[in-house]
Design a protein that fits this description.
The chain has a two-stranded antiparallel ribbon with strand order 1-2. The radius of gyration is 24 Å and the shape is globular. By secondary structure, it is mainly alpha-helical. The two termini are 33 Å apart. It has 23 helices and 2 strands.
């Protein structure tokens, strides 16, 4: 606990608010008077905040935990997309390697010169719709083998990623994205951050339900060991609070392996076999021992205008989702809210990351991983160094394929059980932003309610009406227009940003302070709050060499 306490006396009080002298309090008819909590811009219940570091052995284990959590999403997206593109098990293993490699590189870049927050950059599901339309284009053409169709699809994806990346680079480094974020207030942040967690509900129990006998024990075991058993002994408290996730994965994975070997799944449906068996991913047999990802490994990129627009839509969606995730990450790592210039440079850097992904032949672009931010809240450790060490694991396991494949064969329902908890923590983190605004104002309740509901409801309509080949409900004659709109409105966080920002900035508030602006304003400017420099400045005095207009 020492760490966060040491930092407490650097903190400055919130900006003074001009308040009218209070009227005489009404007579209190009830006897109930509970305590009130003052709003806190930083969480003080963390054991390590953003720039304090646990001991090296602990940091390594925690970093490995981040790697495992990120691996689940990577395997999930590769397992759903590669077979549809016509790829075999070997292709799937290579795609997982490239995705991991790019995750490692992008996370390292973001933590060093991007947002400086402890966020892992993981694969983004926003790119699946444009990817499906690329797959769909190539299903009717005649190819010599299925593998040729796969390579053709991935080369087209590369071309689209390269072009779309410039949208993010321009938006970020021209400072335009930061200017847009100045319209955010605590009232907008509640639904946006909440839905970046809740919007992924399909990755929770629906995925767990594919194999209940593995997923449910994992969920129950994780809650009991991490929250209840830690009270047994002070030593157990530290170990279980920080590493219960790894311990539970080990136990349940072994249980799944025993069920597989004992023949429990010999006579069940193919779908159940895929979800439950530990040997069904065929990654161990097909992954190479050593393979370093290199640019253009699938061949030269193919540029097709019709597909670029869908990717541009996905790039904007992943920027919106990352921005929401950065706010949650700042909260759960004990930092203050990220200012506009930090958000700008992190989105610009995300564009550069996308460009690299296009060159290296990645399947999808990256976004800040919501699950890993949930992990900061679960372990109470928001240290930036832990996330930087986890990039070492990602890059190592992406080069030494057999070792990576070993962990990638953990059944997906185990990951789904973890997501049930981690995504919930991020969603709840969004709700805490309401402390800075007046939660008794009817206008605020209206803005919150409409943006929360539409943010869940509109994407649900789009998902339910999207056919298997990626055709969404928007079907005009202009294919590029369809791609952009279908991608936009399938993302809960993006819908919440649009609805929330518009409503909050156009409906007038009865009192200026109702929206929480006095708390919020200082953090939007680089010089607005003394702590901003402490959390978000570049490492190793790089900023002395950068022209001040870019800082």
């Amino acid at each position: 606990m020492g760490e966060t306490e040491n930092h407490q006396h650097h903190h400055h009080p919130p900006p003074p608010q001009v308040v009218a002298p209070p009227a005489a309090p009404p007579p209190n008819f009830a006897l109930s008077r509970g305590p009130t909590w003052t709003p806190a811009e930083q969480l003080h219940q963390l054991q390590y905040c953003i720039h304090s570091n646990p001991s090296w052995p602990q940091a390594l284990l925690l970093a490995f935990q981040h790697f495992i959590v990120n691996l689940g999403t990577t395997v999930l997206i590769a397992s759903t997309m590669v077979p549809r593109m016509g790829g075999n098990h070997g292709d799937k293993a290579r795609v997982i390697q490239v995705l991991l490699f790019m995750s490692g590189i992008n996370t390292l870049l973001q933590t060093l010169i991007g947002s400086r927050l402890p966020t892992v950059m993981g694969v983004s599901f926003a790119y699946t719709l444009p990817l499906l339309s690329i797959i769909n284009d190539y299903t009717d053409e005649a190819f010599g083998t299925e593998h040729d169709r796969f390579v053709r699809g991935i080369r087209t994806t590369q071309g689209s990623l390269i072009v779309a990346s410039f949208v993010n680079i321009i938006l970020g480094y021209s400072r335009a994205w930061g200017e847009l974020t100045r319209f955010f207030t605590p009232i907008v942040m509640v639904p946006v951050v909440c839905l970046v967690g809740l919007g992924l509900f399909a990755r929770g129990f629906p995925l767990l339900g594919n194999c209940v006998e593995i997923g449910l024990p994992m969920l129950i075991l994780l809650i009991i060991s991490q929250q209840y058993l830690k009270r047994v002994h002070s030593r157990a408290h530290l170990i279980l609070e920080r590493f219960a996730l790894l311990i539970c994965i080990g136990i349940v994975w072994a249980f799944a392996a025993i069920l597989t070997v004992s023949g429990a799944y010999n006579n069940v449906k193919t779908a159940t076999k895929l979800s439950c068996r530990t040997d069904r991913s065929y990654l161990m047999s097909s992954a190479p021992w050593i393979k370093i990802p290199y640019p253009f490994q699938w061949g030269t990129p193919i540029f097709r205008a019709s597909h670029v627009f869908g990717m541009i839509g996905a790039a904007l969606v992943s920027s919106a989702e990352s921005t929401a995730t950065f706010f949650a990450a700042a909260r759960l790592s004990g930092a203050t809210a990220p200012p506009a210039h930090v958000l700008s440079r992190s989105i610009g850097l995300q564009g550069i990351g996308m460009l690299l992904e296009g060159l290296f032949g990645s399947l999808v672009g990256t976004t800040a991983s919501v699950e890993n931010v949930g992990l900061l809240g679960l372990t109470h450790i928001g240290s930036r160094r832990v996330v930087q060490i986890s990039t070492g694991f990602m890059i190592f396991f992406s080069i030494f394929g057999k070792f990576g494949a070993f962990f990638a064969s953990i059944p997906l329902p185990i990951f789904a059980a973890i997501y049930c908890i981690l995504l919930g923590i991020v969603a709840a983190c969004g709700i805490t932003f309401i402390q800075f605004a007046n939660s008794n104002s009817m206008r605020n309740i209206y803005v919150l309610g409409v943006s929360l509901f539409l943010g869940l409801s509109i994407p649900q309509y789009f998902v339910m009406n999207t056919t298997g080949d990626g055709h969404g409900p928007v079907r005009t004659n202009a294919g590029w227009f369809n791609s952009i709109l279908n991608t936009f409105f399938s993302s809960p966080a993006t819908v919440a940003i649009i609805v929330g920002t518009v409503l909050d900035n156009t409906l007038e508030a009865k009192q200026v302070d109702d929206r929480g602006i006095p708390w919020w304003k200082p953090f939007q400017h680089s010089k607005g709050d003394a702590r901003t420099e402490e959390f978000y400045s570049y490492p190793l005095r790089i900023n002395e060499y950068i022209p001040s207009r870019f800082l």
